[in-house]
Amino acid sequence: MAEVEKKEVAAATPPWKPKPRPIVRLGIVLISHSLLVSVVCCTAGVVALFLLPMLAKNTYISENALMPGSASSMLSNDDISEAERLAKDLTSLNSGAADAGIERRRVLAKYLSDLGVEVGYHKFEPHQNQFHPLHFFSSPDSGLSRENGSCSSYGINVVGIIRAPQADGKEAIVLVTPFNFRKNSSSEALSISIGYAVFSLLSRVTWLAKDIIWLVADSQYGEYASVASWLRDYHIPVFSASSSDNADSCFEGNNINLLREESLDQTEISSGFRRAGTMAAALVLKVTDVKGQLEDTLSVYAEASNGQMPNLDLINVVNYLAVHRQGLRVKVEKFISVLRWEWIWVLGDTLNFIGKVAGSLNPEWKFGISTPDYVEGTATLANLLYRQALGIPTGPHGAFRDFQVDAITLEISPKVVYTNQGRRNEFILRSARLIEGVVRSVNNLLEKFHQSFFLYLLTSPAKFVSVGVYMIGFALLVAPLPLVAASLYVDANKPDPSSQGPKHKLQINFKPWKWLSAAKQVFTVHAWGVFVSLLPYFISQIPNSTPAAHSIIWFSLSTFGLLVLYLITKSPFKPQKGEWENLKSVTISVVFIGLLLMSVVNFATAQIGALVLVPACLLAQPLKLDIRDASLKSFLRIACNVFISFVAFPPVGFFVLKGVNEGSGNMDVGEFWTWLESLWAWNSATYIYIGMVHLPCWVLCLHILLHSC
Amino acid sequence: MPTANTQEENSKSELQKNHGGGGGFTRWAVVAVIFRLALIYFPGNLNLSSRPEVSTPLTSIRRLAEGYWLKQSSMSPYAGSMYHGSPLLLSVLGPLTVKRIEGQPGHILCSLVFVLADLISAILIRATGRKLQIAYRKSLKSLNLPNKSTDSGALSSGDIAALVYLWNPFTIVACVGLSTSPVENLFTILTLYGAATGLAPLAAFGWVMATHLSLYPAILIIPVILLLGYGPDAPPSKLFRSKEHGKVGDGKSSQEIIFSWRRAFHLLVWTSLWSVYVLVLCSISVKQHGSLQEMFQRTYGFILTVEDLSPNIGVLWYFFAEVFDFFRDFFLIVFHSNILFMILPLAIRLKHRPCFLAFVYIAISSMLKSYPSVGDSALYLGLLGLFLDELADMQFSFFLFCGYVGVSLLSPVMHNLWIWRGTGNANFYYATAMAYACFQIVLVVESVSSMLNHDRKLTKLSTSKLQK
């Protein structure tokens, strides 16, 4: 009898329910308080982002072998005067003459071969950047087709190679100076002077352990294209006979033969493509004229495609030598408009005050930062995030990163345009010594750059935020997503007390699989996102149309596609309980996965995207419910939802950002198209992010808002 | 009508709409094949066949082509540690790798073979699912439990399992990426099909071939024997026994739980026959340039000693790249016996459900094997669909789904970061491999526990019936 009772008791209470493990209990607590947790985490994430300039550390040289500045410079005035002679020869040629370009190349080649180095020409056809949606996942340039361009447009780079006297020629350091052979430009001539001064010195020294390559890149079709095509030919030799024949036939009738025959009767000019070893580092040297500067400055550009940065040690070496040895002012680009924002200054003051108070409480706490430093750091950081998020390289150095070579562009701008030869020589001497010092440091390297950071943000040339710090802010920002998704999922799939049917029926319900229909919707919208991101490829083929027309066609086609999808997949059933919760849960999970992926591919995009998408997704709730509720809280939420979903629409977001940055002047619809076109032309992952994560999730958020529950 | 039931019906009808009945299956299967063919012709630069997730040293078609080339130039195909597969596969697929058709992508014939293998696998899964469902209904009937599957009409777990197998991105990637895993999967599925239908010779053939091709299916001999001996999956046998006690004179159900030694013996005989046959074929194939001993060393030895430490989605390569050489043998034994340790307890606990046992074995071995690829995951995910009725209450399905999607997207990105960009390192990629292994563990644990819960539920229902 007692046994039967026991059995009945066992049947009445749900069987087999052990106490959950601590980690599960912790998860349950977090999920049940998801609202509080998400508010706290999101706020903390945004605050952490604004604290980054304060948390930045001073840079230090991590690799011992670099030893920057340990040797005194060997550059003498003879090198400078020789370089100046070359610059004069180059500029004195009549720029109007048709063959001035050939003549300049010949002069340059003559000077180089007089140094006793190997000289070669590299001819290339400038490629139009192609749209490769899948390019990111494949190896660099595996899919680049070498189509037959027209013979009319091509450029010729001049390459000089110094073989290291005591090395096996397996490594090389690359110097690049962009130079337009067709045009006369004093600043470019100045950069050639600096390059030649260093190169002539390096051709004589005995300490070289790596070969030196000097690439005078023909910049008439853009600096990037010439460097990129030289690098491609350097790393990926072409063996197919047909294409090289074709290229040669192109040049046959042209002046390259002329060059070869007339310029030098010796055999210094090599016919084939000259190579040295693997590249340890590359420096791109440019001289620009910027008016109104107080001293000679050096701007460092480091962002390569998809926000990749060179090893921090390279920037450190340049910064150290420029500041401490040559007395140049080193700059990193910053958003000027940030400096004008009042609230940033107020924030800086507040942080300064907090830092001071903390310092007075405990002198050990030294996290104070002066207000101007904070604002400058924020402006620099904002610019860096923006440049990284665009995913477009900021100079020819970007081409090197695709082949895992660390490279930066050094843009030196003199205080005034020097007319006095003595002052000019001194400027060249300082710049050339800087380059010499960097080359000497890199020359000391035993291995590839690996010691220092690859993932960092700069807040000034001498301050950086490492990945371990900036990831905390991002992690805090996205942490609520899985929690809210889980809590919504639990809410939507709660066992309904009213539907507890007769216990003795073998009821196999597919309730735990109810999310499948929501997943189907999400998948459909993402498929639409893929369609929308592929559309520009076809639209851009339409001849003779303006960017504005392109964007209108694109917009209308996308909307049409969405409408068709909606009509096809519209569920004939009336909305069920828990449907929008499920949909929101799946959407949030997708956003989480997308942001996580993007943070690995391009951190800046993920950070900026998270700032927009996370609140949009977390706040989304059917407007109908809120209107029915009619409380202050719900009205507040409606206002937030409407505002965020308006701003989160990519074109609107673009124009709002532009308005904030440049003032609301003329707004052209075509600008958005142009901007996106530049993104896909450079194979930026941001384009894929916008098309396949941001836009579908925005549509899904709208869908949830307008849901008829 | 309570709302939950309408929801349930809605979701069911949606599923029906998607997967339909027999016609629906045919349609979707044809679309799946066309989709694969389109992908094969697609001139994409995805380089699927060189991705570590798709092709392992054992399954790569490029290595097979190399082995064939070595063989053609009168060398041992195993020379130079390139090829590690079966000599029979070499004889069948080898000639197809060199044959080119003008204007077609390379390896087109091999691709067609793999597409065909996938299709046959799906059909076999479907047939196995039918068998399992019939057995399930029969056992429910004999327990006098209401059968819901009859109401749902066209919704059959076999169809869904076959479609899941065909449309699983992992299967598609493995097929289009020219790895030989579709063929290996085919033989594993053939084993299960043969055992489920009671055809000892077929089961033996499938098992011998699958073991020959990839070694790990060897542990499937236990579920196959159980399947042949006890018949397809059924509720625990003590249920029937207690039912017999309740209703005296029902001799029907007692037959089902008797282990049929005759069939098991048949299986053993056929297994030995097929093994001898395969060995003879192999020895003929390798006789000119090598020996059977070399074959065993280069195939099974290669699998067991984890010689190739190139990155893959498994967890062993990183470990054995780091471990000191003098501990290597010890850890090799530890890792391999991991699989063996789990065989016996699982076999005892799940002996009444041999097909599910086979699924669990396959999942565990694809997690712990030395060179796993997505093709292995495709196999067990497809088989998971066979137990849809039993696993309907499975927890964490959404979590697992998100995890699989996330990891399979993150893994190539991490690989790119490590290999091509140079800003990441091996730890990045290995982290995704560990996450993947964790999700697989969760999947196995959850599916086993929900299967046991299902059994408990059946027990409860039938005892409450008896007490009435």
Q: What does this entry look like structurally?
A:
- With 709 residues, chain A is an alpha/beta fold.
- Chain A is built from 26 helices and twelve strands.
- In chain A, the strands form two sheets. A nine-stranded mixed beta sheet of chain A has the order 6-2-3-5-4-7-10-8-9, with helices on both faces.
- The longest helix of chain A is centred in the last third of the chain and has 25 residues, at 515-539.
- Mean pLDDT of chain A is 82; it is low at 1-15, 136-150, 241-258, 260-267 and 499-505.
- With 468 residues, chain B is mainly α.
- Chain B has one domain.
- Helices cover 71% and strands 0% of the residues of chain B.
- Chain B is built from 20 helices and no strands.
- Chain B is globular.
- The model of chain B is unreliable at 1-20, 149-153 and 248-255 (pLDDT under 50).
- At the A-B interface, α18 and α20 of A face α1, α19 and α20 of B.
Summarize the structure.
Chain A: The chain crosses the membrane at residues 23-52, 467-490, 521-539, 551-568, 588-614, 635-657, 686-706. Chain A: Keywords: Membrane, Transmembrane, Transmembrane helix. With 709 residues, chain A is of the alpha/beta class.
